[in-house]
Amino acid sequence: MSHDQVSCPLEHVQTCARPFDRYRPYARTEQFDAVLDRARRLKGLRVIEINSTPRGGGVATMLHSILPALQGLGLDARWYSMCDERAFFEMTKQLMDLLQGANGHVTPADRDLYCKVSTQLAAQVDKLSADVLVIHCPQPAAILSLLRRQPSCGSIWRGHIDLAHPNPAALAFLEPFLCPYDLIVLEVRAYCLPGIPSQRQRFVPDAIDPLTTKNKQISRDDARQIMASVGIDISRPVVTQVARFDHRKNPIGVVDAYRLACRSVPGLQLAMLGTLAAQDDPTAEAVYEEVKRYVGNDPNVHLFADPKVIGQPQVDAFQTGSDAILLLSEKEGFGIAATEAMWKFNAVVGTDAPGISAQIDNGVDGFLVSSVDEGADRIVTLVRDRALARQLGQQAHETVCTHFLLPRLIDDWLGLFEGLSRRQAARAA
Questions:
Q1: Tell me, what DSSP letter sits at residue 208?
Q2: Are 83 and 50 in contact (CB under 8 A)?
Q3: What's CA 191's distance to the chain center, in Å?
Q4: Which of 15, 217, 356, 359 is least surrounded, with the fewest CB atoms within 10 Å of its CB?
Q5: What is the mean predicted confidence (pLDDT) over 226-246?
Q6: How would DSSP label each residue in 64-85?
Q7: What topology does CATH give the domain 213-403?
Q8: Strand order across the beta sheet in which 367-369 lies
């Protein structure tokens, strides 16, 4: 398809309001009350959230929880995602890689395609009459700059990727599209953007929803039985990485760490759970096949990508019942899969990328590593020293309870919306 033929309509993602009272057990009393107070003041606020895909990956997962919570609090919150336009997503996949430090540049043809699709999207957003517009990730970032009608209260661009060391050419491409936003909201301070005034940047880490099927707390024994049903030998140790099949998640490094650990832990098994369903990641299948070839005929490595085999209950089981959870990403905006495992009392071995090190206190509630060799050593430690693994897992759960559950994230978002609304009221006065 030529760029002249590209068509990318927005699609409304249906969500159902969830009473926020269901989150009362997962929030401090003062935090819960603050959410209700903010929500009363913002009742009826029309929030439009736009991202690239309705399923697959951490952003879609979070929006499937954030939107019902906002709706349950009385906000008129709606979510739209982009169509599955392969040429555009191939281009923006490359852009995401560049923004996370890869070598290369944005070509004139790439720029033309990006602007053409963004113009189509903006024409549709103009019809939605948002009070607050929240755009997620680079794919739809240019929408705001192309709108004829600006949101009545304000606009937010939410970045979810590792921007600690971006390719300068890619950042120079993206930043002009970000300048019109009232707020730029990033995961951690290490992702601060030099071309955006600091007073317009906020740092809000993501969180997990304790009410989803994937985050249901089950016993280790029950988890191991579910793992056995998909081919894991539960009489032997197993370590797991839950992540997209994406080079940034370092799947080859995960296999290498497992192979090194096998020298000290005979019979060790590795499970890698990923998705091929995210429409904004057209390279996932090719990466999966690459990993499959690299694994070869090792019967102790289990690759799972079929959603008919691995759904939320199975992910829950692996994150609960594995002897260690790995997240050896080379780049990571925020490690939601690590947070999920920590919530389930499991110790995580993660790289010291900013989005992971913001969650894990090395040696206290998990381990941070800077190489495959270190990752292998920590796997061996956790498999051999189960008392230490339980101690770290207990503290990991407490860390999530304090910092990374959905009520805290909703409180943060309502605070941002309230600030935008106050600023608009001051301007009107």
A1: B
A2: no
A3: 15
A4: 217
A5: 97
A6: HHHHHHHHHTT-EEEEEEE---
A7: Rossmann fold (3.40.50)
A8: 301-304, 269-273, 238-242, 324-327, 348-351, 367-369
Q: Please, which pLDDT band fits residue 55 given cuts at 50, 70 and 90?
A: confident
Residue-wise over 209-240: b if at least 16 C-beta within 10 A, else e? bbbeebbeeeeeeebbebbeebebebeebbbb
Q: What pLDDT band is residue 6 in, cutting at 50, 70 and 90?
A: low
Question: Kindly report the CA angle at 334 between 230 and 169, in degrees rounded to 5?
Answer: 120
The token pair that represents 308 in the structure block: 């008919």
Average pLDDT over residues 230-238: 98
Instruction: Locate the domains of the chain by residue range.
Output: 3-207+405-428, 213-403
The CA radius of gyration of the chain, in Å to the nearest whole number, is 22
User: What is the residue type of 223?
Assistant: A
Q: In 10 A of CB 362, how many CB atoms?
A: 13
What residues contact 159, with CB distance under 8 A and at least 6 apart? 137, 138, 184, 185, 186, 187, 191, 333
pLDDT (0 to 100) of residue 278:
61
| Rounded-to-integer distance, Cα 158 and Cα 184, Å | 6
* CATH architecture of the domain with residue range 3-207+405-428: 3-Layer(aba) Sandwich (3.40)
199: which residues sit within 8 A by CB, 6+ positions away?
none
Residue 1 pLDDT: 41
User: Tens digits of per-residue pLDDT, 194-231?
Assistant: 999 999 999 999 999 999 999 999 999 999 999 999 99
Across the range 255-278, mean pLDDT stands at 93
Tokens 């996932």 — which residue?
284
> Average pLDDT in the 66-84 region?
95
Residue 21, H or E segment: none
What are the tokens at 21?
A: 């009272």
Over residues 113-126, mean pLDDT: 94
Is the distance from CB of 344 to CB of 322 less than 8 angstroms? no
Task: Say how far apart CA 325 and CA 183 lie, in whole Å.
Answer: 34
**58 vs 241, residue with greater confidence:** 241
What pLDDT, on a 0 to 100 scale, did the predictor assign at position 7?
62
Residue 378 · residue 367 · CB < 8 Å: yes
Topology alike, domains 3-207+405-428 and 213-403: yes
Provide the residue type at 35 as one letter: V
Looking at residue 2, what is its pLDDT?
A: 44
For residue 356, what are the CA distances in angstroms to 135, 174, 191, 328?
23, 24, 13, 9
365-370: long-range contacts, CB 8 A cutoff, minimum separation 24: 365/392, 365/395, 365/396, 365/398, 365/399, 366/338, 366/342, 366/392, 366/396, 367/392, 369/328
